[in-house]
Request: fold
Amino acid sequence: MSVLALKIDVDTYQGMKTGIPHIVKVLDKYGIPASFFISFGPDRSGLAALQLLRPKFLYKMIRTNAPGMYGIKTALYGTILPAPMIGLSFPEDIKHLSEMGHEVACHAWDHRLWQDWLPLMSRNRIDIWLDRLVNAYMETLCERPQGFGAPGWRMDKRALEIINRFGFKYLSCTRASMPFIFRENGMIEIPSNLPCIEEVGTKGVIRVLEDNADSPGPQVLPVHAEVEGGLYENDFKQILDKAMSLGYNIERIDNIVKDIDRKGLHMRGLQQGFIPGRAFKCSV
Reply:
């Protein structure tokens, strides 16, 4: 029986406010846990407008009906409208996620800054960004975070070296096929190795779930609060129905990490590559 984890990223204020409640209701109906990767700091989604000059990004926004998923306000946050805090605006909701048996992990302080400008951020800026993220998590949950998943699966060697001092038990920052150990810092990486709805559509996700149903390694499905908690909620249910019918054992990522034998993992360095359906290179 293959193990499946739901890695649910919360990128925006809207995703935290309306997407998470919808997803939680669905998970509660199925009686399954998930791993929520929360952005705690400012929602500056409006800065994504700068990326519209890139044809691939513009095409992705049109193809996935981004205005319908994210809303007009989100498209203006951090530019015309002030940037609201995401996770820090909903501390009780985040505590409730933990109390319900879900994992809460770290995703971002300023999501847009990391996803769009990581190569131009100084080592000091990266350190400050991570420090703010971890402090926000601890302020909310009164405990140290176990996992970190980088925005947009964007990573570099400097960030991998710096992140070592923050005490994470694992990373989930790549789109590789199987868990491995980063040569840069000796940390376990649990990659998102299934495609998103935005990348291949609902039928595409289901097809890969069918193909991987007997895989010996853990399968990690990337989910976005703004997507599966919004216009694609019914599609999310279809995917869960299929996963359950295929016999997947659905687990939290931190529990998967506890069961992994480090000695059996391959060690390798950070790599970059294009993923079908995405506009930019990811860590793979």
Observations:
- The CA atoms of residues 42 and 85 lie 4 Å apart.
